[in-house]
Amino acid sequence: MLGNDLKNTAYPLLRRAMRGLNQSLTPLRAAGGRLRYLSPFPQRFTGAYATFEEAIAAARSNGLAGYDHEEIAEVAFEQMCKVAPWDYPVLFWMRQLAGEVDGLVDAGGHMGTKYRAFRNLMQFDDTFRWVVYDLPSIVQAGRCRAERENLPGLHFVERIADAGPVQLFLGSGLLQYLDVQLSRLITELPVRPQHVILNKVALRKGGTVITLERIGRATVPYQMRDEGVLRHDIEQLGYTLVDRWTIPSLAHVIETHPELGASESAGFYYRLG
User: Fold this and answer.
1) For this protein, what is any one GO molecular function term (predicted)?
2) Is the torsion defined by CA of 40, 44, 48, 51 positive or negative?
3) 143 by DSSP, 3-state: which?
């Protein structure tokens, strides 16, 4: 009986005390985070903004802003061309869909990094169309590299409408940097794809926050999205969630705003209908 009494009274008191302690420490965490603006060492993530426009304006005040610069196309390129642990759910579903899919649009696919990472594992034939949609500077650099490497199956477009009809929409690491709703991008395709695979999606509870990520010499808006808003956006197009996975190693804290908590990184597979 004594043990049950202790459990019923002491434990709730302890939980309330811990919540109170965390709340009392929040201002200290916030103050410590703001001091990181003064650090001589560059932070990976800085600032917290309500809109993409606010974030990109702050980035411009710091010099090179956004991803649309050829000089940052090569940043971490070789590393991105390797298969990472968080790629395996994507590979699993792509293999499951191999009989249904003869091409895909790789939105935000950089210079074809996932094509290079996956091609030996997936054994694409010459008829498989892998179309990368990205920003003009990245597309230009990607085309040049693909020509040098003789990769005729790898194509690049600056307008997603030019990707043509494809059965699969792949967005791996796309949504952090996308400044429009995902539904808008999908509906710009000539035909709505039957399958949508999203990976490395930065999520958080308590509403969307946009921070600035340092990539090479550039500062790039990085969006941590509200999951409910994201899922409603895609599901209202008629897509049904088939699978969801988490990637704990890609959770991030904004160094200057630690009181906002860590993001969650996740992946999704959706099927139309």
Assistant:
1) methyltransferase activity
2) positive
3) helix
Q: What is the pLDDT of residue 15?
A: 58
The 3-state secondary structure of 76-104, one letter per residue: CHHHHCCCCHHHHHHHHHHHHCCCCCCEE
The distance of Cα 167 from the centroid of its chain, to the nearest Å, equals: 21
The H-assigned helical ranges of the chain are 2-35, 52-60, 77-80, 88-96, 113-122, 136-148, 182-187, 227-235
What is the bridge-based pairing of β-strands 239-246 and 154-157? unpaired
Determine the Cα–Cα distance for residues 266 and 149; give it in Å rounded to an integer. 32
Which pTM does this prediction carry? Answer: 0.84
Task: Report residue 144 as tokens.
Answer: 């040049």
Please give the C-alpha separations between residue 251 and each of 56, 87, 261, 266, in angstroms, as whole numbers. Answer: 22, 16, 10, 9
Backbone angles phi, psi at 209, to 5 degrees: -135, 140
Cα gap 131→102, rounded to integer Å: 11
Mean pLDDT calculated for residue range 246-261: 93
Distance of CA 106 to the CA centre of its chain: 13
Dihedral sign from CA coordinates of 106, 107, 113, 114: negative
What are the tokens at 182?
């995902």
Q: Which two tokens stand for residue 5?
A: 């009494």
Tokens of 267: 């992946």
pLDDT in tens, 175-195: 999 999 999 999 999 999 999
Query: Which residue's structure tokens are 């399958």?
Result: 195
End-to-end CA distance of the chain: 55
Q: What is the DSSP letter of 42?
A: P
Cα(273)–Cα(176) distance, rounded to whole angstroms? 26
List the beta bridge partners of residue 268.
Answer: 198, 244
Question: Residues 20-65: pLDDT tens digits?
Answer: 545 554 566 556 565 555 666 678 899 999 999 999 999 888 777 8
